[in-house]
Structures are given as structure tokens and as C-alpha cells.
Design brief:
6 helices, 2 domains, 8-stranded mixed sheet, about 260 residues, L,D-transpeptidase catalytic domain-like, alpha+beta
Length: about 260
């Protein structure tokens, strides 16, 4: 009987110790989960702040660090950020996430809201014989426009007043917002070879070749205007197409014109 009481007291002591340890562990896990949830749920509201670390152009995750986070909280966020930046084969070495709060910091690419055609046009191609302009990304046509040309469209422009649109490889160099033809984009004609030919043949090579819209004050329908060649050698689009062209094509993009 004397031995039973000490053994009972020991058993009760160890049971209490294990239960207290369990409570401490559960408390730690609960606090950690709460910290993760609070941090990442509140991150979008601070999206206008400057991040504490640089984000590369190819980054798929954005972590916003609040100035109020200190110590273990910052370390925990940094570890989660590291896990998000690794590919699946590497992230497994960091162990599984401790909670479902990762969904609060996995964000889309910063560029996902942009028009997919923007900054991808590598070449503007003009087929004079078909009265078509094509915007290309590599070999892929991403947009097509109906165009009107000069009154004598066939053949390369040689001199001022021949009403021809130049042929060959040129470049788009600047936008003219103030134009007699809505809006205009200037083409860098004449090139040195054009000027040399004109000098050799004692003629003025001309210039001021542009892609432009419909003449200001024109009351006839754009579809009718674009059904025939009416420019002095420029390339004409409807005003709506002109707006789209300027939005999609960066200045400096090459333009290839052929019959």
C-alpha cells in the first residue's frame, strides 16, 4: 500500500506534464497560423508600398513586408517567400507548408493585366498589291488592317509628286498628334540610297511619308474612303485603326513595304 501511493503520484505528475506540453505546442502552432493568416490577408492593402526586396520581371509571387513585422514573424514570411520563388522540385526540401495561408500571397504576374499584343509587334508589313497592313510578332500575324495608298501605288517612290508609296525596308520614327489627317506616324523615307538616286537623276526624292488617318473634316464614311487609293503616297487607315496601330506598335519598329 505504501508503494502504490508514490507510484500514483508519479503517474499523475507525468500525465500533467505531458498535457501541459501538448497545450504549449498547440498554442505555438495556433499562434504561428494566426500570424501567417494576418500577414498575408493584410498584404494586398499595402500594395502601394515599395517592397523591401527587388522583384524580377519574371517573378510570379509578390510578398509585401509590413514595417510592423519584427523578429520571428519576418523570418517566417521570408521563408514562405523563398518557398514561393522555387520550382516544385526545389521547394520540397523546405518541407510542406504549415497551413493553407499560402493562398493569400500567391499573386498573378504583374504583366497579366496588360494587352497581350502590346510590345510584341516586331515588324509592320505592307502588301501594296492587296491593300493590307500586317502586324507581326516573329512570323505570326497578330493584327491586320485595310489600307489606302497613293494615287499611283505600283512601284517605288522616286521623286516628289509621283504619288507613289515607297517600297523596301524603313522604320517608324515618331508620332504626330497634330495632323491634317487625324493622327500620323512618320516613316523615315528617304534613306541614303533614295537620296543618292535622286541626286544622280537630279530630282527631289520627296518625303513626309506617313501612316495616317482620314482627312480632318471628311464627312464621307471611312469604309467608302478606304475603298480607293486617295493619298499622295502615304498609307491611310481609318481613325479607329490608327488609334489601335499607335497603341500596339512602338516607335523604332521596322516597316517592310512591297508590291
Amino acid at each position: 500500500m505504501r508503494l502504490i501511493w508514490p507510484l500514483s503520484l508519479c503517474l499523475l505528475f507525468f500525465t500533467s506534464l505531458v498535457y501541459a506540453e501538448k497545450l504549449v505546442v498547440e498554442k505555438i502552432v495556433s499562434d504561428a497560423t494566426a500570424i501567417e493568416t494576418i500577414v498575408f490577408e493584410s498584404a494586398p492593402s499595402h500594395s502601394n508600398r515599395t517592397p523591401t526586396s527587388s522583384v524580377t520581371a519574371n517573378s510570379k509571387h509578390v510578398i509585401v513586408m509590413d514595417d510592423a513585422l519584427e523578429g520571428d514573424s519576418q523570418q517566417k514570411v521570408a521563408q514562405l517567400s523563398q518557398r514561393s520563388s522555387l520550382d516544385p522540385s526545389q521547394s520540397s526540401s523546405l518541407g510542406p507548408p504549415q497551413s493553407s495561408s499560402q493562398e493569400f500571397y500567391t499573386l498573378p504576374d504583374a504583366s497579366s493585366g496588360l494587352d497581350p499584343l502590346l510590345q510584341v509587334v516586331t515588324l509592320v508589313k505592307v502588301d501594296k498589291s492587296k491593300r493590307r497592313m500586317y502586324l507581326l510578332k516573329g512570323e505570326e500575324v497578330v493584327q491586320e488592317f485595310r489600307i489606302a495608298l497613293g494615287k499611283q501605288p505600283k512601284g517605288h517612290k522616286r521623286f516628289e509628286g509621283d504619288n507613289r508609296t515607297p517600297e523596301g525596308q524603313y522604320q517608324l520614327d515618331y508620332v504626330m498628334e497634330e495632323s491634317d489627317f487625324y493622327r500620323s506616324v512618320h516613316i523615315n523615307y528617304p534613306r541614303s540610297s533614295d537620296m543618292q538616286w535622286a541626286q544622280k537623276n537630279d530630282v527631289d526624292p520627296g518625303g513626309n511619308i506617313k501612316i495616317h488617318g482620314i482627312k480632318n473634316g471628311e464627312r464621307r464614311s471611312p469604309s467608302f474612303i478606304q475603298s480607293f487609293d486617295w493619298t499622295d503616297g502615304c498609307i491611310a487607315l481609318t481613325n479607329q485603326d490608327m488609334d489601335e496601330f499607335i497603341q500596339l506598335v512602338k516607335m523604332g519598329t521596322p516597316i517592310h513595304i512591297e508590291w
